[in-house]
Design brief:
Blueprint: H1 5-23, H2 32-50, H3 52-59, H4 61-82, H5 86-90, H6 103-127, H7 137-142, H8 148-160, H9 170-187, H10 191-207, H11 215-236, H12 245-254, H13 259-263, H14 282-292, H15 307-310, H16 326-336, H17 351-385, H18 390-397, H19 402-408, H20 414-423, H21 425-438, H22 444-455
Length: about 450
């Protein structure tokens, strides 16, 4: 059987799943399953087709067929678990969120977060794209929190769009901060930050009014998302323009929309037309892991997930703290790479299926994808259950996009211990407890009435 049959079968399943949800009127663009499927399609459909000839040449037809078949049944397994009745039953038993919201509290919290985010951006800009070698350890630590600026933007938008007590001045301020965040991180060449800014802003604007965007808005959002990603990647890799505000402005004026195809892995950049390997792409990393683990190097047996906790233990307390799972990751690349790789080799993402193969092969894939499906669906059902609550609106707008990160990064939890866990999670928890104390008697009646009216 043609090894690409499995790729096209996966594409058909995603298309049918989308159409069915649209026809039965259950399509919600802010459900995490859609961003998960967007990332899945990019890696295991688009990249699998674009890099097919290279994959056959380097890894052989048998392994490519096995990898594509793995991607197919893993997709079916994820959707099956996602739609099991377990997760919806978990949401009602979870702790109830604080229903109050304090304008004064947000007015006090947001400005310091914006300033901190701007400081982080300034450190990155002054250090250049190569970063940490030229800055002090203290600066390296402080520059790790740029996302708090986007957190502040969402806080302002939620406050400004509140159904119970809207604050007209907060909303445009939030939009301005969000737009500034996207622009700054496009200039810094960071595709993920720029895309998050677009997705979180659009989400916050709609869920605060208990609405969903129209199809034209969704299409515009999709275009804006791929555009900022293409701009950020192109600017980061550019050698033709001065790394300055004027150079960036000139780059934007000369930007060609065909660069979007490059960022989507549909077309190779001109500078890489003669490239010799795609193993540093997510699909290429997946094939390498399938080819190498466990035959040439060992499983990590999920050691990387220890970083969900170990990341937050300072090295001043644990000086010899290892980077759990990294040794097995590097060993796999050294054993299976087309090129000579040393222990200093780092960075390329291997995608969710590459990570689960490294965790434990097919068994690891079953376990990890089941856990992710349950987590995403339970979180979504919690959001739906308390959709009118401002704290939940803030939390969801600043969280739901991580379903995409789970697919296209180093492993499914990298979003937590490299960004969200230390830049967003503390603020989410702080607001939970602070609102429990300072906002005990919110104006709930109006919000509840609106919710009931919309549902009816």
């Amino acid at each position: 059987m043609d090894e690409q049959f499995f790729v096209f079968a996966a594409a058909g399943i995603i298309l049918v799943y989308f159409l069915v949800n649209v026809i039965v009127r259950k399509f919600d663009p802010f459900a995490p399953v859609w961003l998960f499927l967007v990332g899945y399609a990019q890696v295991y459909i688009i990249q699998a087709v674009s890099y097919h000839e290279w994959a056959l040449r380097v890894r052989g037809q048998e392994l490519v067929a096995a990898a594509n078949f793995r991607a197919l049944w893993a997709l079916l397994w994820f959707l099956t678990v996602y739609h099991l009745g377990i997760s919806p039953r978990l949401a009602p038993v979870l702790p109830r969120p604080p229903r109050g919201w304090s304008t004064a509290l947000i007015a006090g919290v947001a400005p310091p977060l914006i300033l901190w985010g701007l400081y982080c951006a300034g450190v990155v800009i002054s250090a250049g794209f190569q970063g940490p070698d030229s800055i002090s350890p203290e600066e390296a630590l402080l520059r790790s929190f740029p996302f708090v600026m986007m957190v502040a933007a969402i806080l302002l938008i939620v406050t400004g769009r509140s159904l119970a007590s809207p604050q007209p001045l907060f909303f445009p301020a939030g939009l301005l901060v969000g737009a500034a965040y996207v622009a700054i991180w496009m200039f810094n060449g960071k595709r993920s930050h720029s895309l998050i800014g677009v997705l979180s802003t659009v989400c916050a604007c709609y869920i605060t009014r208990l609405k969903r965007p129209s199809w034209p808005v969704l299409l515009a959002t999709s275009f804006a998302g791929v555009l900022v990603v293409a701009i950020a990647i192109g600017w980061r890799n550019n050698n033709d323009y001065e790394l300055s505000a004027s150079g960036f402005t000139q780059y934007l004026s000369d930007f060609k929309l065909e660069k979007i195809l490059e960022s989507l892995n549909i077309k190779d950049p001109e500078s890489e037309q003669e490239t010799t390997t795609y193993e540093t792409t997510e699909y290429g990393g997946f094939l390498l892991m399938m080819d190498t683990v466990p035959h040439k190097s060992d499983y990590d047996y999920g050691a990387n997930y220890i970083r969900v906790c170990s990341t937050f233990i300072p090295r001043i307390v644990w000086p010899t703290k290892p980077l759990f799972g990294r040794e097995q990751w590097i060993n796999a690349y050294i054993a299976g790479s087309e090129m000579d790789r040393g222990e200093e080799f780092t960075s390329p993402a291997i995608g969710i299926l590459g990570a689960t193969q490294l965790n434990g092969g097919a068994v690891g894939t079953l376990i990890v994808l089941a856990c992710i499906a349950l987590l995403l669906r339970a979180a979504y059902e919690y959001f739906r259950l308390y959709a009118e609550v401002p704290w939940v609106q803030f939390w969801w707008a600043i969280t739901f996009y991580n379903a995409w990160f789970m697919v296209v990064n180093d492993d499914p939890m990298v979003w937590f211990y490299y960004n969200w866990g230390f830049s967003t999670f503390p603020i989410v928890v702080f607001l939970w407890w602070a609102l429990k104390i300072v906002a005990r008697d919110p104006a709930q009646a109006l919000t509840r009435a609106v919710v009931v009216g919309i549902q009816q």
